[in-house]
Design goal:
- By secondary structure, this protein is α/β, with parallel strands linked by helices.
- It has three domains: about 5-50, no CATH class; about 60-165 and about 295-320, Rossmann fold, CATH 3.40.50.2300; about 165-295, 3-Layer(aba) Sandwich (Rossmann fold), CATH 3.40.50.2300.
- The protein is about 45% helix and about 15% strand.
- It has helices at about 5-15, 20-25, 35-45, 50-60, 75-90, 105-115, 135-140, 165-180, 195-210, 225-235, 250-260, 295-310; strands spanning about 65-70, 95-100, 120-125, 145-150, 160-165, 185, 215-220, 245, 270-275, 290, 320, 325.
- The strands form two sheets. Strands 2-1-3-4-5-11 form a six-stranded parallel beta sheet, sandwiched between helices. The protein has a six-stranded mixed beta sheet with strand order 7-6-8-9-10-12, sandwiched between helices.
- The longest helix has 17 residues, at about 195-210.
- It is elongated and about 90 Å long.
- It starts with 6 loop residues before the first helix and ends in a 5-residue tail after the last strand.
- The relative contact order is 0.11.
Length: about 325
Protein backbone atom coordinates (compact mmCIF):
# COMPACT_ATOMS: atom_id res chain seq x y z
CA UNK A 1 0.00 0.00 0.00
CA UNK A 2 1.47 3.38 -1.02
CA UNK A 3 1.63 5.89 1.83
CA UNK A 4 0.17 9.31 1.04
CA UNK A 5 2.86 12.00 0.65
CA UNK A 6 2.94 14.97 3.01
CA UNK A 7 3.98 18.61 2.68
CA UNK A 8 7.01 17.84 4.83
CA UNK A 9 8.16 15.11 2.42
CA UNK A 10 7.73 17.42 -0.56
CA UNK A 11 9.68 20.20 1.17
CA UNK A 12 12.55 17.85 2.06
CA UNK A 13 12.89 16.52 -1.48
CA UNK A 14 12.74 20.00 -3.02
CA UNK A 15 14.88 21.76 -0.43
CA UNK A 16 12.13 24.29 0.18
CA UNK A 17 10.27 25.33 3.31
CA UNK A 18 6.88 23.76 4.05
CA UNK A 19 5.21 27.17 3.76
CA UNK A 20 6.76 27.76 0.32
CA UNK A 21 5.53 24.36 -0.90
CA UNK A 22 2.06 25.01 0.49
CA UNK A 23 1.81 28.43 -1.17
CA UNK A 24 3.14 27.06 -4.46
CA UNK A 25 0.42 24.41 -4.53
CA UNK A 26 -2.16 27.20 -4.03
CA UNK A 27 -0.73 29.33 -6.86
CA UNK A 28 0.22 32.11 -4.45
CA UNK A 29 1.41 35.21 -6.41
CA UNK A 30 4.54 35.58 -4.23
CA UNK A 31 5.92 32.26 -5.49
CA UNK A 32 7.89 32.17 -8.77
CA UNK A 33 6.28 30.27 -11.64
CA UNK A 34 9.33 28.03 -11.98
CA UNK A 35 9.09 27.05 -8.33
CA UNK A 36 5.35 26.39 -8.64
CA UNK A 37 6.01 24.10 -11.59
CA UNK A 38 8.70 22.12 -9.70
CA UNK A 39 6.42 21.69 -6.68
CA UNK A 40 3.35 20.66 -8.67
CA UNK A 41 5.30 18.17 -10.81
CA UNK A 42 6.70 16.44 -7.72
CA UNK A 43 3.32 16.54 -5.98
CA UNK A 44 1.74 14.82 -8.97
CA UNK A 45 4.51 12.22 -9.17
CA UNK A 46 4.19 11.40 -5.46
CA UNK A 47 0.35 11.50 -5.58
CA UNK A 48 0.20 14.18 -2.91
CA UNK A 49 -3.28 15.08 -1.60
CA UNK A 50 -3.99 17.83 0.95
CA UNK A 51 -5.14 16.83 4.41
CA UNK A 52 -8.90 17.38 4.11
CA UNK A 53 -9.43 17.64 7.87
CA UNK A 54 -6.75 20.32 8.16
CA UNK A 55 -8.36 22.26 5.32
CA UNK A 56 -11.74 22.02 7.04
CA UNK A 57 -10.34 23.31 10.32
CA UNK A 58 -8.57 26.18 8.60
CA UNK A 59 -11.41 27.26 6.33
CA UNK A 60 -14.29 26.14 8.57
CA UNK A 61 -15.93 24.62 5.50
CA UNK A 62 -16.64 21.15 4.24
CA UNK A 63 -18.13 19.64 1.10
CA UNK A 64 -19.62 16.59 2.81
CA UNK A 65 -23.33 16.22 3.55
CA UNK A 66 -24.59 13.74 6.14
CA UNK A 67 -27.59 11.45 5.64
CA UNK A 68 -29.07 9.70 8.68
CA UNK A 69 -31.72 7.04 8.02
CA UNK A 70 -33.30 4.32 10.18
CA UNK A 71 -32.02 1.68 7.76
CA UNK A 72 -30.55 1.50 4.28
CA UNK A 73 -32.19 -1.90 3.73
CA UNK A 74 -35.33 -0.22 2.50
CA UNK A 75 -36.53 0.68 -1.01
CA UNK A 76 -37.71 4.10 0.11
CA UNK A 77 -34.51 5.23 1.84
CA UNK A 78 -32.40 3.66 -0.88
CA UNK A 79 -34.08 5.83 -3.53
CA UNK A 80 -33.92 8.89 -1.26
CA UNK A 81 -30.17 8.43 -0.86
CA UNK A 82 -29.76 7.95 -4.62
CA UNK A 83 -31.48 11.28 -5.31
CA UNK A 84 -29.46 13.16 -2.68
CA UNK A 85 -26.19 11.64 -3.92
CA UNK A 86 -26.98 12.64 -7.52
CA UNK A 87 -27.69 16.23 -6.54
CA UNK A 88 -24.71 16.38 -4.19
CA UNK A 89 -22.31 15.24 -6.90
CA UNK A 90 -23.64 17.84 -9.35
CA UNK A 91 -23.10 20.59 -6.77
CA UNK A 92 -19.62 19.49 -5.72
CA UNK A 93 -20.55 17.67 -2.51
CA UNK A 94 -20.04 14.11 -1.34
CA UNK A 95 -22.33 12.15 1.00
CA UNK A 96 -21.69 10.39 4.32
CA UNK A 97 -24.47 7.87 5.10
CA UNK A 98 -25.24 6.36 8.51
CA UNK A 99 -28.16 4.31 9.85
CA UNK A 100 -29.68 4.38 13.33
CA UNK A 101 -31.35 0.95 13.16
CA UNK A 102 -34.12 2.70 15.14
CA UNK A 103 -31.86 2.69 18.19
CA UNK A 104 -31.66 5.97 20.10
CA UNK A 105 -28.09 5.48 21.32
CA UNK A 106 -26.87 4.55 17.84
CA UNK A 107 -28.58 7.66 16.51
CA UNK A 108 -26.78 9.84 19.10
CA UNK A 109 -23.44 8.19 18.28
CA UNK A 110 -24.00 8.85 14.59
CA UNK A 111 -24.80 12.50 15.25
CA UNK A 112 -21.54 12.79 17.19
CA UNK A 113 -19.65 11.34 14.21
CA UNK A 114 -21.36 13.75 11.82
CA UNK A 115 -20.31 16.69 14.00
CA UNK A 116 -16.78 15.29 14.37
CA UNK A 117 -16.52 15.09 10.58
CA UNK A 118 -17.83 18.66 10.31
CA UNK A 119 -20.52 17.91 7.73
CA UNK A 120 -21.79 20.95 5.88
CA UNK A 121 -25.41 19.88 6.32
CA UNK A 122 -27.46 16.94 7.58
CA UNK A 123 -30.52 15.12 6.23
CA UNK A 124 -32.20 13.19 9.05
CA UNK A 125 -35.08 10.73 9.38
CA UNK A 126 -35.48 10.18 13.11
CA UNK A 127 -35.64 6.83 14.89
CA UNK A 128 -38.79 5.39 16.43
CA UNK A 129 -37.36 6.09 19.90
CA UNK A 130 -36.55 9.77 19.28
CA UNK A 131 -38.56 12.21 21.39
CA UNK A 132 -35.95 14.81 22.28
CA UNK A 133 -34.30 16.48 19.28
CA UNK A 134 -31.84 18.54 21.32
CA UNK A 135 -28.90 16.43 19.98
CA UNK A 136 -29.88 17.69 16.53
CA UNK A 137 -30.02 21.27 17.83
CA UNK A 138 -26.26 21.14 18.43
CA UNK A 139 -25.83 21.40 14.66
CA UNK A 140 -27.53 24.78 14.82
CA UNK A 141 -24.84 25.96 17.22
CA UNK A 142 -22.34 25.11 14.47
CA UNK A 143 -24.51 26.87 11.86
CA UNK A 144 -24.96 23.50 10.14
CA UNK A 145 -28.43 23.15 8.55
CA UNK A 146 -30.53 20.07 9.35
CA UNK A 147 -33.32 18.97 7.01
CA UNK A 148 -35.66 16.43 8.61
CA UNK A 149 -37.43 14.18 6.10
CA UNK A 150 -40.07 11.43 6.09
CA UNK A 151 -39.97 10.73 9.85
CA UNK A 152 -39.94 14.23 11.28
CA UNK A 153 -40.38 15.83 14.73
CA UNK A 154 -44.03 16.48 15.52
CA UNK A 155 -44.17 19.79 17.35
CA UNK A 156 -40.79 21.45 16.95
CA UNK A 157 -40.27 24.33 14.53
CA UNK A 158 -37.59 23.10 12.14
CA UNK A 159 -36.99 22.30 8.49
CA UNK A 160 -39.17 19.35 7.46
CA UNK A 161 -39.68 17.79 4.04
CA UNK A 162 -42.30 15.06 3.89
CA UNK A 163 -45.29 13.81 2.00
CA UNK A 164 -48.74 15.20 2.60
CA UNK A 165 -49.29 12.20 4.87
CA UNK A 166 -52.94 12.89 5.53
CA UNK A 167 -53.60 13.02 1.78
CA UNK A 168 -51.87 9.68 1.11
CA UNK A 169 -54.10 7.89 3.62
CA UNK A 170 -57.22 9.75 2.45
CA UNK A 171 -56.55 8.75 -1.17
CA UNK A 172 -56.18 5.09 -0.16
CA UNK A 173 -59.34 5.15 2.00
CA UNK A 174 -61.38 6.75 -0.79
CA UNK A 175 -60.19 4.08 -3.23
CA UNK A 176 -61.30 1.33 -0.83
CA UNK A 177 -64.68 2.97 -0.28
CA UNK A 178 -65.09 3.50 -4.02
CA UNK A 179 -64.75 -0.27 -4.53
CA UNK A 180 -67.48 -0.84 -1.88
CA UNK A 181 -65.33 -2.92 0.45
CA UNK A 182 -66.99 -3.77 3.76
CA UNK A 183 -64.37 -5.51 5.89
CA UNK A 184 -61.00 -3.74 5.96
CA UNK A 185 -57.75 -4.87 7.55
CA UNK A 186 -55.67 -1.69 7.92
CA UNK A 187 -52.01 -2.24 8.76
CA UNK A 188 -50.04 0.81 9.86
CA UNK A 189 -46.48 1.51 11.00
CA UNK A 190 -45.26 2.19 14.52
CA UNK A 191 -47.93 4.25 16.38
CA UNK A 192 -45.26 6.47 17.99
CA UNK A 193 -44.25 8.06 14.67
CA UNK A 194 -45.87 11.27 13.48
CA UNK A 195 -46.14 9.84 9.96
CA UNK A 196 -48.27 6.97 11.32
CA UNK A 197 -50.40 9.27 13.46
CA UNK A 198 -51.21 11.60 10.57
CA UNK A 199 -52.05 8.77 8.19
CA UNK A 200 -54.13 6.92 10.76
CA UNK A 201 -56.16 10.02 11.66
CA UNK A 202 -56.89 10.81 8.00
CA UNK A 203 -57.77 7.17 7.21
CA UNK A 204 -60.21 6.95 10.11
CA UNK A 205 -61.74 10.35 9.42
CA UNK A 206 -62.37 9.44 5.75
CA UNK A 207 -64.28 6.31 6.75
CA UNK A 208 -66.26 8.21 9.41
CA UNK A 209 -67.36 10.75 6.83
CA UNK A 210 -67.89 8.61 3.73
CA UNK A 211 -68.58 5.07 4.93
CA UNK A 212 -69.29 4.84 8.66
CA UNK A 213 -70.77 1.36 8.33
CA UNK A 214 -67.57 -0.21 7.02
CA UNK A 215 -65.85 -2.56 9.47
CA UNK A 216 -62.18 -1.59 9.86
CA UNK A 217 -59.70 -3.59 11.94
CA UNK A 218 -56.43 -1.81 12.80
CA UNK A 219 -52.98 -3.20 13.61
CA UNK A 220 -49.45 -1.72 13.73
CA UNK A 221 -46.97 -4.35 12.55
CA UNK A 222 -44.23 -1.97 11.22
CA UNK A 223 -42.13 -4.79 9.68
CA UNK A 224 -42.71 -7.67 7.25
CA UNK A 225 -42.88 -10.62 9.65
CA UNK A 226 -45.39 -9.00 12.06
CA UNK A 227 -47.44 -7.92 9.02
CA UNK A 228 -47.55 -11.52 7.83
CA UNK A 229 -48.66 -12.68 11.28
CA UNK A 230 -51.38 -10.01 11.55
CA UNK A 231 -52.71 -10.97 8.12
CA UNK A 232 -52.87 -14.69 8.93
CA UNK A 233 -54.53 -13.92 12.27
CA UNK A 234 -57.19 -11.80 10.54
CA UNK A 235 -58.19 -14.75 8.39
CA UNK A 236 -58.68 -16.97 11.44
CA UNK A 237 -61.70 -14.94 12.55
CA UNK A 238 -65.35 -15.45 11.63
CA UNK A 239 -65.28 -12.71 9.00
CA UNK A 240 -62.17 -12.52 6.80
CA UNK A 241 -61.15 -9.14 5.37
CA UNK A 242 -62.14 -8.39 1.80
CA UNK A 243 -59.37 -5.77 1.46
CA UNK A 244 -56.01 -5.16 3.16
CA UNK A 245 -54.45 -1.71 3.42
CA UNK A 246 -50.64 -1.56 3.86
CA UNK A 247 -49.04 1.67 5.08
CA UNK A 248 -45.66 0.88 3.53
CA UNK A 249 -43.58 -1.49 1.43
CA UNK A 250 -42.31 -3.63 4.31
CA UNK A 251 -45.87 -4.23 5.47
CA UNK A 252 -46.89 -5.05 1.89
CA UNK A 253 -44.17 -7.71 1.66
CA UNK A 254 -45.47 -9.41 4.82
CA UNK A 255 -49.07 -9.29 3.60
CA UNK A 256 -48.20 -10.83 0.24
CA UNK A 257 -46.19 -13.58 1.97
CA UNK A 258 -49.28 -14.43 4.02
CA UNK A 259 -51.63 -14.41 1.03
CA UNK A 260 -49.22 -16.58 -0.92
CA UNK A 261 -49.06 -19.04 1.97
CA UNK A 262 -52.86 -19.17 2.11
CA UNK A 263 -53.05 -19.40 -1.68
CA UNK A 264 -55.55 -16.52 -1.61
CA UNK A 265 -56.42 -15.04 -4.99
CA UNK A 266 -55.92 -11.29 -5.48
CA UNK A 267 -58.31 -9.54 -6.07
CA UNK A 268 -60.95 -12.29 -6.42
CA UNK A 269 -60.81 -13.36 -2.77
CA UNK A 270 -59.11 -10.38 -1.14
CA UNK A 271 -58.02 -6.98 -2.46
CA UNK A 272 -54.78 -5.20 -1.58
CA UNK A 273 -53.83 -1.52 -1.63
CA UNK A 274 -50.63 0.03 -0.33
CA UNK A 275 -48.75 3.25 0.20
CA UNK A 276 -45.48 2.61 -1.61
CA UNK A 277 -42.25 4.00 -2.98
CA UNK A 278 -43.45 2.65 -6.33
CA UNK A 279 -41.18 -0.26 -7.28
CA UNK A 280 -42.40 -3.14 -5.12
CA UNK A 281 -46.07 -3.09 -6.28
CA UNK A 282 -44.92 -3.58 -9.88
CA UNK A 283 -43.20 -6.87 -8.97
CA UNK A 284 -46.50 -8.61 -8.21
CA UNK A 285 -49.09 -10.00 -10.59
CA UNK A 286 -51.50 -8.34 -10.65
CA UNK A 287 -49.69 -5.10 -9.93
CA UNK A 288 -50.66 -3.72 -6.53
CA UNK A 289 -52.79 -0.58 -6.56
CA UNK A 290 -50.83 1.96 -4.54
CA UNK A 291 -50.52 5.56 -3.47
CA UNK A 292 -47.04 6.45 -4.67
CA UNK A 293 -44.75 8.24 -2.24
CA UNK A 294 -41.46 8.43 -4.10
CA UNK A 295 -38.31 8.49 -1.98
CA UNK A 296 -36.47 9.76 -5.04
CA UNK A 297 -38.72 12.82 -5.35
CA UNK A 298 -38.48 13.43 -1.62
CA UNK A 299 -34.69 13.34 -1.92
CA UNK A 300 -34.76 15.91 -4.73
CA UNK A 301 -37.01 18.26 -2.77
CA UNK A 302 -34.93 17.81 0.40
CA UNK A 303 -31.74 18.72 -1.44
CA UNK A 304 -33.43 21.79 -2.89
CA UNK A 305 -34.19 22.93 0.66
CA UNK A 306 -30.67 22.11 1.80
CA UNK A 307 -29.14 24.32 -0.91
CA UNK A 308 -31.27 27.24 0.25
CA UNK A 309 -30.06 26.81 3.83
CA UNK A 310 -26.42 26.39 2.77
CA UNK A 311 -26.71 29.69 0.91
CA UNK A 312 -28.25 31.34 3.96
CA UNK A 313 -31.69 31.69 2.40
CA UNK A 314 -35.08 31.18 4.05
CA UNK A 315 -36.06 29.98 7.52
CA UNK A 316 -37.46 26.85 9.15
CA UNK A 317 -40.48 25.57 7.23
CA UNK A 318 -42.42 22.40 6.47
CA UNK A 319 -42.51 21.44 2.79
CA UNK A 320 -44.82 18.79 1.37
CA UNK A 321 -44.43 16.53 -1.65
CA UNK A 322 -47.65 15.40 -3.36
CA UNK A 323 -48.64 11.73 -3.64
CA UNK A 324 -50.74 10.10 -6.37
CA UNK A 325 -52.89 7.00 -6.81
CA UNK A 326 -51.43 4.42 -9.21
CA UNK A 327 -54.16 1.92 -10.21
CA UNK A 328 -53.20 -1.74 -10.47
CA UNK A 329 -55.17 -4.96 -10.65
CA UNK A 330 -55.23 -5.74 -6.92
CA UNK A 331 -58.28 -3.67 -5.97
Amino acid sequence: MVQQSTLKQLSEKLGLSISTVSRALKDHPDIAEKTKQRVKELATALEYEPNSLAVQLRTKSNKVLGVLVPTINNFFYDSFIAAVEEEARMHGYSVLIMQSQDDLQVEKNNLHLFRKNMVAGLFASISIQTEDISPFAKFGELETPVIFFDRVPVHEICDKVCFADADTARIAAEAIIGHKKKNVLALFGHPHLSITQKRLDAFQETFRKLSPGTKVQYAFPEQSLPAKEETLKAFEGDEAPDVIFCMGDLILIGVMYALHEKKSKVPEEVSVISISNGLLPTLYDPMITHVETSGYQLGKKSFEQMLLRLHGEGGAEEVFVDAKLVPGGSL
